[in-house]
Design brief:
- The structure holds two protein chains of two kinds.
- By secondary structure, chain A is an alpha/beta fold.
- Chain A has one domain (2-248): P-loop containing nucleotide triphosphate hydrolases (Rossmann fold, 3-Layer(aba) Sandwich).
- Chain A is built from ten helices and ten strands.
- Chain A has a six-stranded mixed sheet with strand order 6-7-8-3-9-10, with helices on both faces.
- In chain A, helix 9 (233-239) crosses helix 10 (241-248).
- Chain A is globular and about 55 Å long.
- Chain B has one domain (50-273).
- In chain B, helix 1 crosses helix 6.
- In chain B, 42% of the residues are buried.
- Classes of the chains: A alpha/beta, B mainly alpha.
């Protein structure tokens, strides 16, 4: 269970998060929407302690991220996989070595053969051939890099996956593949996910709950159907952007 | 014209009023970086205690910094040695015994040219590369990705580079010393009225063990400085490609200044002990 409790964060005079609170239930997928620059990625980074809040806390499986020491934080990070917006694969490492990094803090503690089998298994789950393990990130397409990043995020049997705009910059076909993969991981492995996205159609396919971050606050949180039927004009602008923007004008 | 003249004191006043703020800002920046450097230094030293986690990266960095730098080090040292022997030859001919050229080349190469020129070349080759590499890793979120998988960026990125720089500069300087003296010798034989016996006599007259140790200690300090500045500045990169470009420039400028500073300080310190 991930609980975000009264989280506030400012950069200089710019208030990015203002008393944000919500929870993500076990096994669920929450899609986090919001206009560009509203702090969705900042919020996600708070969950694994990459950014410290000004106020509030994030609690993952009962561990307070704000008060956790280095060891506790690393233990939480082993349970939470993070898929970065630009994949953030390590250029100097092969795909296989990138995936091994996600297995545990000390690298792959398994025997070499078991380690390679796990890499192949992860690649299979993201629909990539095992031979991709020997390639370097520069040799992969954007969609393949995203899939490797997802494989790295769950390689250590993480219970939670955080996706930062997983379909941004991809063509519709690759975006659909990634969305299906996220749904598949939830069904097959039962991971709990938070997905920051602008891609409404694909998010509706995988998310069971939606949160809308607007001007630093949570404007909406609830099931997908409630989000679709909401009469809040700000929510409407996201659900049906073209019509609502014309009406607003 | 009268208006312009009357506006001048106001403009001067406005400019003067900015001086305290500029001085204060500079002091805050210096304190900020001093604190940052102290913390990263402490963190680096502590992280060195876990070699199992970084030894592979250390070997890769040692190979890249050591073997990879040999061609440029050899070339620059050869040119520096040849130029030193010729310049000193032209100035000394007819005024001091010709064998002194051997002493001048040995003294210049072992204590200054070997370590200093090697370090300055490697500020560009190693320091700039580290700054650009780590800066790119920061702006593409690779450093955040390291932390996200529970790795310590200082342990994984800074320690292997700083250790490799500290360990590889001394052998490179020994090579530069050898090449510099040899090229000075050949340069002198080709252009000056000196024999090999006279040159070698000059070298042996000057040479003492401490000169070599002096150069090696300087090399280790320079190696640590170049790599540490590359890592420190690189890990503070902001923005995109432009930010990485600024980082690289900053590494080269601050690395060069730091090397010159250490050269001056170490010359006093080591000569006091020597």
């Amino acid at each position: 269970m991930i609980d975000i409790i009264g989280l506030s964060k400012s950069f200089g005079d710019n208030v990015v998060l203002d008393d944000v609170s919500f929870s993500v239930r076990e096994g669920g997928t929450l899609a986090l929407f919001g206009p560009s620059g509203t702090g969705k990625s900042v919020l996600l980074k708070h969950i694994i302690g990459l950014i410290e809040p000004d106020e509030g806390d994030v609690v993952v499986d009962g561990v307070s991220i704000t008060n956790a020491n280095r060891r506790e934080l690393n233990q939480v990070r082993q349970r939470v996989g993070y898929v970065f917006q630009g994949a953030a694969l390590f250029d100097s490492l092969s795909v296989g070595e990138n995936i091994q990094l996600g297995m545990d803090v000390d690298g792959c503690r398994l025997k070499k053969k078991e380690c390679e089998e796990r890499v192949a298994e992860c690649l299979h789950l993201v629909n990539l051939h095992p031979s991709v393990a020997d390639l370097y990130p520069i040799e992969l397409s954007g969609g393949m890099q995203k899939r490797v990043a997802i494989a790295r995020a769950f390689a250590g049997h993480q219970r939670y996956l955080l996706y930062d705009e997983p379909t941004t910059g991809l063509d519709p076909e690759n975006a659909f593949i990634i969305t299906n993969l996220i749904d598949h991981l939830r069904e097959e492995i039962g991971v709990t996910s938070i997905m920051v996205t602008h891609d409404l159609d694909n998010a509706f396919l995988v998310a069971d709950r939606i949160a809308l971050l607007y001007e630093g606050k949570i404007r909406f949180k609830g099931p997908v159907d409630e989000f679709r039927e909401s009469v809040d004009p700000i929510v409407r602008r996201f659900v049906n952007p073209s019509v609502e923007t014309i009406h607003a004008a | 014209m009268a208006e312009t003249t009357s506006q001048m004191p106001a403009k001067a006043g406005a400019l003067l009023s900015r001086v305290p703020a500029a001085i204060g800002g500079s002091i805050i920046t210096i304190l900020h970086h001093s604190a940052g450097l102290t913390l990263v230094t402490f963190h680096t030293v502590v992280a060195m205690a876990r070699p199992r986690r970084y030894y592979r990266a250390l070997l890769t960095q040692m190979y890249d910094m050591g073997i990879g730098s040999i061609p440029v080090v050899v070339l620059v040292a050869a040119l520096a040695g040849a130029v030193t022997s010729q310049q000193s030859g032209y100035q000394f001919t007819g005024t001091v015994p010709i064998w002194v050229i051997g002493s001048v080349v040995a003294a210049s190469v072992l204590t200054e040219l070997g370590p200093l020129v090697t370090a300055l070349v490697l500020v560009g080759r190693i320091g700039a590369r580290i700054g650009a590499e780590l800066g790119t890793m920061v702006v593409t979120e690779q450093v955040d990705a390291l932390r996200a998988v529970g790795r310590d960026p200082v342990e994984q990125l800074v320690v292997p580079r700083v250790l490799a720089g500290t360990l590889m500069l001394p052998p490179l300087v020994v090579l530069a010393d050898f090449v510099g003296i040899a090229s000075g010798w050949f340069g002198a034989l080709l252009t000056l009225p000196i024999t090999s016996a006279e040159f070698i006599y000059g070298v042996r007259t000057y040479f003492h063990d401490f000169a070599l140790w002096f150069g090696l200690i300087k090399a280790a300090v320079f190696g640590a400085t170049i790599t540490f500045i590359g890592c420190y500045v690189g890990l503070r990169a902001t923005g995109g490609a432009e930010g990485v470009g600024r980082t690289t420039t900053s590494v080269v400028v601050s690395g060069t200044v730091a090397i010159m500073f250490w050269d001056a300080v170490l010359a006093r310190l080591l000569k006091a002990f020597g």
